[in-house]
Design goal:
Blueprint lengths: L5 H60 L2 H4 L2 H9 L2 H7 L2 H8 L3 E6 L4 E7 L6 E3 L2 H4 L14 E6 L4 E8 L12 E8 L2 H8 L5 E6 L7 H11 L5 E3 L5 E9 L5 E10 L1 H51 L13 H28 L14 H5 L1
Antiparallel strand pairs: 1-2, 1-6, 2-3, 4-5, 5-6, 7-10, 8-9, 9-10
Helix pairs in contact: 1-9, 9-10
Length: 377
Amino acid sequence: MQRMSLSNKTLLFVVLSIAAFVGLTLWVADGLLVSRLARIEREQTAAEVTDACALLRHCAKEYGEHAASWSDSDAMAQFLRDGNEAFLNSKVSLAALSDELRADVLVIAREEGVPVYATQVNEAGNALEPCAPDFLEQLTPRGLMRPGGPFTGMLALQDRTYIVSSRPIHTASGADGPVRGRLVTAQEIDQGWLQNAREFCSFQMQLTRSSDEPSGAEERAARETLHKGAGNFVAESSAQQISGYGLLPDLYGQPALVLHVTRERALHQAASAIFGGVLWTLVCGGIVLSLLAYWATRRVVLEPVQRLLACTRRLWAGERSHVVFKSGDELEALARDINRMTDAVFECEEALQNAMRAPAGEPPAALPTIPLQNVRR
């Protein structure tokens, strides 16, 4: 098995140390920066879902005010009493429903839920037609004929969803006493209505009927969470987009619409750019730092050790050699001790050789002693 040189060990140690430092820094940056910004994005999206739901409730309340001048009218009260045709001929028209009431459905009903007049705009939007039976089925004390003051809300029918307003009918002066009936108007929530609502917000908003099939796994998970009572559901749809979901109930407290808010992940993209810059900076800095650390280690430690090793090899080969350091540390002291030991060894060898060359009968010269304390130091 081939042994690894001290130089290679040092290089490996430096590289692993720098890699560990870079990895730890990236892990900390990811935990402190990216995770923090992701949490902020989720909180902002949840707040936008709340704001969007509040906006839609405000739109519903505002919609109900358009019918105030109709419900607080002596002519409307008189029509509820006797059903005179003059009121219909002068007041009710396609233009009046579109411009004044902003309504697709108009119902005038007595207190017990019996409609006096009920109409709606046809599919083509160019004429009035009799009101659909499934809408008239909602004229109940628990539904659109709920007693009390005016109220607005959402009404989800089989094939469409409305925003509805129900207002009590009474005379403008109140001199003739209360009138037992209500004026009900409804506007279909379609793409046109949604586009008008988007003009009041700075984010993308979509509405889907709660009875429709979910469009994907994300929306299915959102509906399951919302139906369990959660106020909102936020999901990271992609690296560029984050989505928030909310549930809008109808007049009966049942889920009517699923609100879907989408927004660009500006913070995430900024964090990714910053993180990428930090990554390249750390990698490049790590490479430069590794080279500098290896150069410094080689200059301060490896080269002196290699010089000492070369000195000992020359000594082993029988060459007298000294090594000199001016580092002021333990390496300088070690070099000094090796030099002394080298001098002592060669002096001893010269004395032995002189003794061997001395004439017979002449006493040999005393051999030099090696200062062991210097060698051991």
